[in-house]
Design goal:
This protein is α/β, with parallel strands linked by helices. Helix content is 36%, strand content 23%. The chain contains 18 helices and 27 strands. It has an eight-stranded antiparallel beta sheet with strand order 3-2-4-1-10-9-11-15, with helices on one face. Strands 5-6-7-8-12-13-14 form a seven-stranded antiparallel beta sheet, with helices on one face. The chain has a five-stranded parallel beta sheet with strand order 19-18-20-21-22, with helices on both faces. A hairpin with a 2-residue loop joins strand 2 and strand 3 (41-48). Helix 4 packs across helix 5. The N and C termini lie close together (10 Å).
């Protein structure tokens, strides 16, 4: 989850590193640091806190005349946030920044202590740098190979060797790293936004691969140390698209980008009014053979998977299952040869989700990735990929990525139903047309921000809050609750409305805030009955329902009405006011919207 940058070229090196770290701070902001060549030595500057603290520390020093270095922004795993646990870490001849977890660090540390090494931090990363120093005999690639051969765990590392000035070395396993190509300069980063100010041309390092950056070029080696050629990719977006664009926060910008993201994701996959996935591996002949669909993801992507499960079962009438990735990989899942495992991840680098994909392939199941990043680890490992064209998503709390994940799952469910012949073409054509309308129906909802802000102001001092709904509305309740708790720090829980009376209603007392979602026509009256039960115990209720829905006077304190739309597709509309409510709750409570505490954008550790 930490962010890594590296640079070798002709510019002021520290400025390049700081700019890259600024673009990667969403990956972790417990501490930040840089290391750069200073004459014949390597200088390390690092500190606990946000990147601004590092900038202040550097500003108090003489401006370094350097053109090569590495940088790091940390999300703490091993060792609490502190100056000493910050990266980079150094040994006598080597300096390193690291993303990942070294699982056998304790036994390696004991060995190194016996060899005379001393340690000052609590991190596993310090073990890694000192193991590199232990193996170093004037050949950096050989030292890296010897080191990683002894390591169990995950790592994306950028390394400076004291006697190789002007060069940055890198190696990766399960933690993402890319190299960027410039003119007389070259770059290293954990993610594309760190490169966009300087280049859009990049290559993705695969498992075990190593790289050497120099001003005049990049060399890439296999895990065996053999030179290899890598495919060069071009980023689909530029630096401007990764900026706030006049919005006060990335999250609000990305909420407003949902109509265009939906259009970009859905439009190219509709031909003659019908869904067309344009992937040979997902031909109708293959889709007809699928017996079960297993959807595996984490967090927000998991909630998109729940919507996908309901859509698949409702439309294609085959069993679909959802699993949290960290549970799926350890529960010994039962997979059949004709089962499809759908892996959903915004970054395409989520470690638990990637491990689940590898397990599914080992068990002989076909895998389909739904990801936002071209060339990501999950995209490369899956048998087939459906990309979500959300563009860069910088805010830690996912918004537009969630919407396009749902859209892709709807497209898949519609095509699956058509291939299996359980729905006639006219019905699929109608639902596809409605799906294509979703973006335009969202636009008016975005214009009602002030109404949602007013509701947030009425509940901003709440310590606890409940969400409730049935069916699709329950899945949306889970996502609405997650958004609220992760950025406003209000304790919130989501419940299936029918379960409220089986224990949870005991928590509702006078003034308890409840957000009730009732957009599913088949269970609307039952949901309203559950809402009235909560309000009769004193709950303050915000009700979200469709225009024209009959709402008893005693059912809600506040009502948000959404346009009439197909019940199956309502999550695409419903999520917008829930995202805005969480956003304004966070703003009004004075929280850091884009960088909530203890969280990072891409979870690349277990």
């Amino acid at each position: 989850m930490c962010g890594i940058v590296g640079y070798s070229g002709k510019r002021a090196g520290v400025d390049v590193l700081l700019n890259g770290l600024e673009k990667l701070e969403y990956r972790g902001y417990d501490s930040a640091g840089v290391a750069y060549f200073d004459g014949d030595d390597i200088r390390v500057v690092k500190c606990e806190g946000r990147l601004a603290a590092l900038r202040e520390r550097l500003a108090a020093m003489p401006a370094p005349d350097t053109h090569c270095g590495i940088g790091h922004t940390r999300w703490a795993t091993h060792g609490a946030p502190s100056d000493v646990n910050s990266h980079p870490h150094a040994a006598s001849r080597v300096c390193l920044v690291h993303n990942g977890i070294i699982e056998n660090y304790a036994e390696l540390k004991e060995h190194l202590i016996r060899c005379g090494y001393e340690f000052c931090s609590e991190t596993d990363s310090e073990v890694l740098v000192k193991l590199l120093d232990y193996h170093y005999q004037n050949d950096p690639i050989d030292a890296i190979r010897r080191t990683v051969a002894e390591v169990r765990g995950s790592y994306g590392a950028a390394i400076l060797f004291r006697d190789h000035p002007g060069e940055v070395y890198a190696v990766r396993r399960e933690s993402p790293l890319i190299v960027g190509y410039g003119d007389g300069e070259n770059f290293l980063a954990s993610d594309i936004p760190a490169l966009l100010k300087y280049t859009r041309e990049y290559s993705v390092l695969d498992e075990g691969e190593m790289a050497v950056l120099r001003p005049d070029g990049i060399e890439i080696y296999s895990d065996l140390g053999a030179p290899i050629e890598k495919e060069r990719l071009t980023a689909a977006f530029d630096e401007q698209s990764a900026e706030k664009g006049g919005f006060p926060h990335f999250m609000l910008k990305e909420i407003h980008e949902q109509p265009s993201a939906l259009r970009a994701t859905i439009g190219p996959r509709v031909e003659n009014g019908l869904p067309d996935l344009h992937i040979d591996a997902l031909s109708d002949d293959y889709l007809r053979r699928i017996e079960n669909v297993h959807i595996v993801a984490c967090g927000t992507a998991m909630h998109a998977g729940m919507v996908g499960k309901t859509a698949i079962e409702a439309l294609a009438r085959i069993p679909a299952f959802t699993d949290i990735a960290s549970e799926f990989r350890y529960r010994d899942p039962i997979l059949k040869p004709d089962d499809l495992v759908v892996i959903i991840s915004q970054s395409g680098e989520t470690l638990d989700t990637l491990a689940a994909l590898k397990l599914a392939k080992q068990r002989g199941a076909k895998t389909l990735a739904v990801v936002n990043v071209v060339g990501s680890s999950i995209a490369r490992a899956a048998d087939a990929v459906l990309y979500t064209y959300a563009g860069p998503e910088i805010a830690v709390a996912s918004t537009k990525a969630y919407s396009v994940q749902m859209a892709v799952m709807y497209l898949f469910a519609l095509r699956l139903a058509l291939a299996k012949g359980v729905r006639d073409e006219s019905e699929i054509r109608y639902l596809t047309g409605e799906l294509m309308r979703a973006g335009e129906l969202i636009r008016p909802l975005l214009e009602e921000c002030e109404n949602v802000k007013f509701l947030a102001s009425r509940f901003m001092n709440s310590d606890h809050l409940f969400f409730m709904g049935r069916g699709m509305d329950y899945a949306l309740s889970l996502e609405g609750s997650l958004k609220l708790k992760e950025i406003s720090y209000v304790h919130s829980e989501a419940y299936a409305a029918g379960e409220l009376k089986h224990g949870t209603i005991s928590l509702i007392t006078k003034g308890t805030p409840v957000v009730a979602i009732a957009t599913q026509d088949s269970v609307y009256e039952k949901t309203i009955s559950n809402v009235r039960e909560a309000r009769s115990r004193g709950a303050r209720v915000i009700l979200l329902c469709k225009e024209g829905a009959a709402v008893p006077e005693d059912a809600a304190d506040y009502i948000i009405r959404l346009p009439q739309f197909e019940s199956l597709l309502m999550p695409l509309l419903m999520i917008v006011p829930l995202q805005l409510f969480a956003y304004y709750m966070s703003v009004l409570r004075g929280c850091d919207v884009d960088k909530p505490r203890n969280l990072a954008k891409s979870v690349t550790v277990e």
